[in-house]
Amino acid sequence: MAQHNAFYAQSGGVTAVINASACGVIEACRRHSDQIGKVYAGHNGIIGALTEDLIDVSQESDEAIAALRHTPAGAFGSCRYKLKDIETHRAQYERLIEVFKAHDIRYFFYNGGGDSADTCLKVSQLSEKMGYPLTAIHVPKTVDNDLPITDNSPGFGSVAKYIATSTLEASLDIASMCATSTKVFVLEVMGRHAGWIAAAGALAGEKEGDAPHLVIFPEVAFDRAAVMARVEQSVKDHGYCVIVVSEGARYEDGTFLADSGNTDAFGHRQLGGVAPTLAGMIKQDLGYKYHWAVADYLQRAARHLASKTDVEQAYAVGEKAVELAIAGDNAKMPAIKRTGDAPYTWTVEAAPLAEVANREKFMPRDFIREDGFGITEECRRYLAPLILGEDFPPFENGLPKVAHLAKQRVERKLPAFSI
Predict the structure, then answer these.
(1) Is the pTM of this model over 0.90?
(2) Domains of the chain
C-alpha cells in the first residue's frame, strides 16, 4: 500500500493534556508506517499550514514523543485563528490544499474545539470539491467541555480536578481565618457560555454546609439581590462563604458581568474578570472582607495534577483519530462514549463532524440545583469519574520534566502566502 504523509495541528486554548492527544496521534502514525510516511506538525496551528511552516515530527525521538504525554500546553504551538467563510475566502482553503499537495499530505488531524471542528469539516468538503484525496479527522479538545456528542471533552477532566482541589484547599484556608479576617473568597474559573468548570468546583463539597456555598453558572441569570442574600446567610451560618463563579456569568439580558467590550480572534466577547467585579459588589452591599482569585491559565496548565482518566482519554482519541483516517473514515471526530458510571467505563466511537461543528453543549438544567447555586446528584455522578486517578509527571530537581522537541522545519516548496 502506498505511503502518504500526515499533518497534525493544535488549535485554540491549550490544555494540560492536548499533548497527550498529539502523542496518541504520532505514536499511532508510527505504528502504521506502511500507510503513513512522515508526520508534519503545523507550527502555531493552522497558520503553520497556510504559511508552509511545517515541523518534521519524524526527526523527533521516540522518547521525546513519549514525553509529550506528561507535558502541558501545545508543544507545536497553537493559535486563535479562524479560517474565514469558504465562499468568500476560498484562497485560504485552496492554499491549504496546495501545501498538502506539495508535501504529499493525505491525512489531516486538527486538534481543537468547536471552531476547529468547523475548520476540519470545511477542509474536508473543499478537498472533495477540488478532487484532492484528503482524510480529515478532528481530534477533540476543550477545557470548557462544550463539544456535543462526546461524553466529555479531553482537557476538561484535568481542569475539573484542579478546580475542585483548589476550591477544597482554599475553603480550608478561609475557614481557619474567618473569625477575625476574610469572610468571603471568590474563585473565578473559565467557561464563557457553559458552566461545566464552575460545576466541578462543587465536587469539593460532599455534605450540606461544605464549601463552595455558591456556584454561579452562565446558564442561570445573575440576580444580585439573590446572590447577596445567599452570601449573607452563608456567613451567618458558617462564618464564611466560598463562591465559584464562571467567567461567563451574565444578567437576564445576556450582558456579561465582566464584559470588557472587546472581542477575540474568534469573535467571542473578551471577558475582563468577574471575580473582582463580584467581590466589589459584596463589599459594597454587605461590607465583608474578601479575597478573590482568577484561576486563568493555571487551571488549564496544571499537568502535575492532571486526571488520569483525562490523560488516558486524550491519548485514546488521538490514537483513534489515526485508526479512523487509515480506514478512510473522513470528516469524523473520535468521541468518548460512557458505558458505565460505577465503575466508570468508556469507549471511543466515530461521530460525524457535521453534528459537532458550531454546536455547544451546555449544562442541562437538571444538573443545576433548583435554587441555581449548586449541582444536583445527577451532575455529581456525571462529573465525579472524570477527575479520578493521578498521572503524575516525572520530576527532576523538584520540578516536572517536560518534553523538549527539536522542531526541525521542513523545506518550503511554495511561494510565500499572506494570511
Answers:
(1) yes
(2) 4-142+305-357+388-400 (3.40.50.450), 156-303 (3.40.50.460)
**Cα 408 from chain centroid (whole Å):** 27
Q: Report pLDDT digits (tens) over 182-220.
A: 999 999 999 989 999 999 999 999 898 999 999 999 999
Sequence-ordered list of residues with C-beta below 8 angstroms from that of 297, at least 6 positions apart, any chain: none
In one-letter notation, the amino acid at residue 75 is A
The residues, ordered by sequence, that sit 6+ positions from 330 with a Cβ below 8 Å of its Cβ are 124, 135, 136, 137
CA–CA separation, 141 and 14 (whole Å): 8
Cα–Cα dist 310/159, whole Å: 9
CB-CB neighbours of 80 under 10 Å: 13
Is residue 285 annotated as part of the catalytic site, yes or no? no
Residue 261 predicted with pLDDT over 70: no
**Cα dihedral angle (364, 266, 353, 91), rounded to 10 degrees?**
170
Catalytic residue among 144, 146, 310, 391: 144
